[in-house]
């Protein structure tokens, strides 16, 4: 990164205290420090409600937004200037006065199969115990392997791996990106193909939240934006927003940009895997910083894929899940 003069002399980063969240915050701290060597960049660790409640599925206590509320309050109170999030944890609609000021380059977005005894999902025997906290993973895996016993699994990455190593599960599913970032890539036995398990909206991407009126911070964050990653996650999030989906529902969305084309796939399924709706759209896209229409086109693609899913009955599936 090219060093330059910082538009601000002190940046405070609010972060959760989990090992993965701390890695993410330190990564952004290092990126900003490389850009602005004279700037003092401070980490402010805190514990969120989502970190405290570990014995209840997220879908029953408010979804993954529980991991960001305390960080957002720190922004409102001006105890912090930015907050670093895994984008898949960030609700589709942000509180008034806050915005995502940067979308960083995406890590591998796939789901990882992790096991001490089996090489892949297809190698698991009938009735094997598979751990995941995600309804999205559950519905897609149940469609592919309805014979498996899927058991809820909460906790940070280390806690989940510890439960696997204690033989509480035959295998677990984690985000590939989290394992790579924590230096645990060797635990990945197999990356689930997207035709079996499409990733979550925003999976593998980091986003930086800040106050929308803080021009100095927005200017400081601008070099961290990765255009292709931003376009992809904007399409995915627009799809999820049109579906009125939260972060902890059986919705999958994954966009890719390649050779001037944007390709978005979306899925909505019943938790038991008996119904899995699919939709997609390809769109020509001139991906350059000078193209003012790229973001609007990406969001229009997301809306279109969502409406295809709604036409297939996605609203009825989601309504049933929200009513339970």
Q: Would you kindly provide a written description of the structure presented here, covering whatever features stand out?
A:
With 324 residues, the protein is of the alpha/beta class. The protein has 3 domains: 1-105 and 204-225, 3-Layer(aba) Sandwich (D-Maltodextrin-Binding Protein, domain 2), CATH 3.40.190; 111-192, 3-Layer(aba) Sandwich (D-Maltodextrin-Binding Protein, domain 2); 226-323, Porphobilinogen deaminase, C-terminal domain (Double Stranded RNA Binding Domain, 2-Layer Sandwich), CATH 3.30.160. The chain contains 10 helices and 13 strands. The chain has helices at residues 19-35, 49-52, 69-76, 135-144, 157-165, 176-181, 215-221, 227-242, 294-311, 314-323; strands at 10-16, 40-46, 82-86, 98-103, 111-114, 129-131, 149-151, 171-175, 190-191, 206-211, 251-258, 261-269, 276-284. The strands form 3 sheets. A 5-stranded mixed β-sheet has the order 2-1-3-10-4, with helices on both faces. The chain has a 5-stranded mixed β-sheet with strand order 7-6-8-5-9, with helices on both faces. A 3-stranded antiparallel β-sheet has the order 11-12-13. Strand 6, helix 4 (135-144) and strand 7 (149-151) form a beta-alpha-beta unit. The longest helix has 18 residues, at 294-311. The radius of gyration is 19 Å and the shape is globular. Mean pLDDT is 91; it is low at 50-64. It is an enzyme of class 2 (transferase). Residues 11-217 form the Porphobilinogen deaminase N-terminal domain. It comes from Faucicola atlantae.
């Amino acid at each position: 990164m090219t060093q330059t003069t910082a538009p601000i002399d002190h940046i405070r980063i609010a972060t959760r205290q989990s090992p993965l969240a701390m890695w993410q915050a330190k990564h952004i701290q290092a990126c900003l420090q490389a850009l602005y060597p004279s700037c003092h960049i401070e980490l402010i660790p805190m514990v969120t409600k989502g970190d405290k409640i570990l014995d209840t599925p997220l879908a029953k206590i408010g979804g993954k937004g529980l991991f960001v509320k305390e960080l957002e309050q720190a922004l409102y109170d001006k105890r912090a200037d930015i907050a670093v999030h895994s984008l898949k944890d960030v609700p589709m609609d942000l509180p008034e006065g806050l915005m995502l000021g940067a979308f960083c380059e995406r890590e591998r977005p796939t789901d990882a199969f992790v096991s001490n005894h089996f090489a892949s999902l297809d190698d698991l025997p009938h009735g094997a115990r598979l751990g995941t906290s995600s309804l999205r993973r559950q519905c897609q895996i149940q469609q592919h392997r309805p014979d498996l016993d899927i058991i809820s699994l909460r906790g940070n990455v280390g806690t989940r791996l510890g439960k696997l190593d204690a033989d509480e599960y035959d295998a677990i599913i984690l985000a590939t990106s989290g394992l790579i970032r924590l230096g645990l890539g060797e635990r990945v036995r197999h990356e689930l193909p997207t035709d079996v398990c499409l990733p979550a909206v925003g999976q593998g991407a980091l986003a930086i939240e800040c106050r929308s009126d803080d021009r100095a911070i927005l200017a400081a964050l601008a070099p961290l934006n990765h255009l292709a990653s931003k376009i992809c996650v904007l399409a995915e999030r627009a799809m999820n927003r049109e579906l009125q989906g939260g972060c902890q529902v059986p919705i999958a969305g994954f966009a890719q940009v390649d050779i001037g084309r944007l390709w978005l796939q979306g899925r909505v399924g019943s938790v038991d895997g008996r119904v899995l709706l699919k939709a997609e759209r390809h769109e020509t896209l001139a991906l350059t910083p000078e193209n003012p229409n790229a973001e609007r086109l990406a969001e229009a693609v997301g809306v279109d894929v969502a409406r295809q899913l709604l036409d297939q009955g996605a609203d009825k599936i989601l309504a049933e899940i929200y009513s339970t």
